Protein 1
Amino acid sequence: MAALDDTKTRILSATMKAVRQYGLEGARVQNISELAGISPGAMYRYFKSKDELLVACFIHVDQQVAAIFDHLRFDPQLMLTDPMAAVKSLWVPYFRFWVAHPDETVFYHRFRDSAVFPKYDKVRDASYFRAFVEMVRTFMRAFPSLRHVNQDVLWLHVLTSTVMYAKYVVEGLLPNNQETENTVFQFLTVGLSGYLKPEQP
């Protein structure tokens, strides 16, 4: 992931903070620049429009999320002996990232729900998720019945629900504790265990 200069990083952080406070529509260049500690004119040297800025924030967070999987130690043996524990070992750091980053969580949830996102999603480059994709392929090779699951539905369910529940935690609607984490994981994976069985000869 390419390093960002300090001013650009401050603008992205300020944008997400503003979106959390005022919503996507309510966040204005003026309040973003105030939070970033720069002039509105200086912002336009980095981003030509608010939409471009929102997309840059999304990419910035998405790359941070992808990096979680780049640094995880994935144990294929655990996948074969206790598949649900293997799934949980991948999911827990992902969920905890969102809980630990309130501005990013609320921004990400709102941006994915926005009118801007579907248009951007059609052309986005998610190649930085290579490590995660390889982990998914490993699961699918070990458990071929996973191929019968509608992948779009599965990943939309996991992604949207994880971020939504993390948003409830950062907003104080759910407690930030082990019980919440375990319950959310159970909700998300109900039914999945039936697909995590080796194919019978």
Protein 2
Amino acid sequence: MRTTVGWQADHAGDALRQVPLERRDLRADDVAVRVDYCGVCHSDLHALGRPGRDTPLVPGHEFTGVVTEVGSGVTRFAAGDAVAVGNIVDSCGECPMCRRGQENFCYAFPTLTYGGTDRHDGTPTLGGYSREYVVHEAFAYPLPAGLDPAAAAPLLCAGITVWEPLRALDVGPGTRVAVAGLGGLGHLAVKFAVALGAETTVLSRTDGKAEDARRLGAHDLVVSTDKRQLAAARDRFDVVVDTIAVPHDLAPYLKLVALDGTLSVVGHLGSVTVSMMDLLVGRKKLGSAGSGGRPATAEMLEFCAEHGVTADVEVLPSKQVNEALERLGRNDVRYRFVLDLADLS
């Protein structure tokens, strides 16, 4: 086994503390990655606070770093290569979804970067809030030159979560897109939609983010609590990407969807109640998406390098991880915290 160091919480509600961690020895198809930057995702916060959790947890599933060692059979990487790793580190590789490059929908369920179970030895996966990660080479991605590694880290979760539905729904020139919620996911959805050539609008509860929306490239902002603005935007958008992370009524957003358009819910993934009449009038569609497969992730990174798209981040030394989580819990970030792991030793 290999020894590294990382940030771990032993039980639900515990603060993270620095501890030594064990990583597996490299298999033939593994690469060892020195983790330099790791994004802080809302799902990290949820996993850490999940009631009843009584096993140690090392969060972190969107990170960038440098390959330090490769297994004997690795062909895609060499020591010194810059790489990125997301929230999936393995899958069955055999089911119809995996064969289509949608490992995120693996019938046997993908192996998650943390809180998962290794498919080969049954050990729990420990995340990227650590100085080293060992991963199958197929689930590491070359980090294109020119992308800031800190600002690129959130692309591997927040970015791919909104990229896949935008691409699946053929967003491009001539498409009218609205993004509900301007947070970690939402600000990247806006950047992607704009870069893809769509007419892009932000939906927000207040006009307080109007300046940010314009800076990100949005063409308009609709205040979702203003009934007159909502009425004026009825049936206006081909695609509405809903990134709101808390339970909420979908009906007002469905009313904004144009004929044969789609409301794609990627923020809150719990139960919802929808009136079929809200779908019937206009032949509207309700969809969702989660994470991304390997081809889409690689495509996204190349697109980001070509168009200069990265996350808006606040970088903190990893010793401030608990502060970052506390601030994230009260939405005190624009728009993604990223931990600098250089202070781990």
